[in-house]
Amino acid sequence: MIERITAPTSTAAKAVVFDFDGTLGMVRAGWMPLMLDMMMETLAPLGPDPVRLRTEAEEYVAHYTGRDTVEQMNAFAAHVASLGGSPLSGVEYKAEFLVRIEGLRAARLDALRAGEIIPDDLLIPGTRAFLECLRSLGLPLYLASGSDHSDICFEARLLGIDHYFAGIYGSAPGILNKKELLDVIVAQGTSPACILTFGDGRTEIELTRILGGKTVGVASDEPACVEVDMKKRGWLIAAGAGYIIPNYLEPELLRLVEGKV
Predict the structure, then answer these.
(1) Helices 69-82 & 31-43, crossing angle to 10 degrees?
(2) SS in 3 state form for 174-240?
(3) DSSP state of 116
(4) Listed residue (54, 26, 21, 22) closest to 39, CA to CA
(5) I need a labelling partner for 1 at 20 to 30 A (CA). Which of 31, 221, 224, 245 fits?
(6) pLDDT of 8 over the 80 cut
(7) Are 244 and 219 in contact, with CB atoms under 8 Å apart?
(8) Are 22 and 29 within 8 A, CB to CB?
(9) Strand order in the sheet with 214-218
(10) What is the mean pLDDT of the chain?
């Protein structure tokens, strides 16, 4: 089901931007609880109300979702300091988180290589068919992520979706970030109103909304990805999502791309 949040427009998409983790890929599904668990190891001893501390952490983690992970960790370090703790640097916290998420990521990729699962098991339902339809329309597609660039390129290739994209952009020196990518698309002649962005994080949704493009929030109830996760829905609507979907199985998505929904 497509939930329309804002008034519809008749503008057809001329370029489509996708976030990766949680928007297309499920390689890192469960990353947020893992990140919050890591943060609580430091936060819990600093305050009498662990529920409140975790809720506060969840808010800034969600706020910076879609950007380089170090920004979430910088907010975490500031939170620790505000409670009287002695935080590590954001870079150090990011390194610790990457060690933890790598165990989850590696287990899934190993299962894929061993043939225990297929690539579509690590994609939001309907992803491949939707990308194929967009390519058949001749639209340039872009993949942009706050995760490390080398990892995103490797995973997109392993999942068999890299060939759909005119460009893949992850976090690395010299690689376009999401704002820069949107600016380049506009500079190449695409009207901002003709940019359509799919994302599960605040960053890509907010940037596209500010630019004047159309935004679709992917609020999947991971790992099933059948229903809308209401907490994600709230975050995405606050960021400016014009539409909310749980996956790419809805046939009307193509009408949305064509400006008919």
Answers:
(1) 20
(2) CCCCHHHHHHHHHHCCCCHHHEEEEECCHHHHHHHHHHCCEEEEECECCCCCCCECHHHHHHHHHHC
(3) S
(4) 54
(5) 31
(6) no
(7) yes
(8) yes
(9) 3-4, 243-245, 214-218, 195-199, 15-18, 141-148, 167-171
(10) 95
Q: 99-132 burial string, b = 16+ CB within 10 Å, else e?
A: eebeeebeebbeebeeeeeeebebbbbbbbebbe
Encoding tokens for residue 78? Answer: 């500031």
What's residue 223's pLDDT?
86
Cβ 198 vs Cβ 164: under 8 Å: no
The amino acid occupying position 215 is T
4-to-121, 175, 245, 252 alpha-carbon distances in Å = 28, 33, 9, 12
118-137: average pLDDT: 97
> φ, ψ for residue 244 (rounded to 5)?
-130, 135
Q: Number of helices (H) and strands (E) in the chain: give both, helices first.
A: 10, 7
Q: What was the pLDDT predicted at 80?
A: 97
Task: Tell me which residue has tokens 């919050």.
Answer: 36
What is the residue whose two structure tokens read 């933890």? 100
Would strands 3-4 and 243-245 be described as parallel, antiparallel, or unpaired?
antiparallel
Strand partners, 130: none
pLDDT at 198: 98
DSSP label of 67: B
Separation between Cα atoms, residue 220 and residue 158, nearest integer Å: 22
Sequence letter at residue 66: G
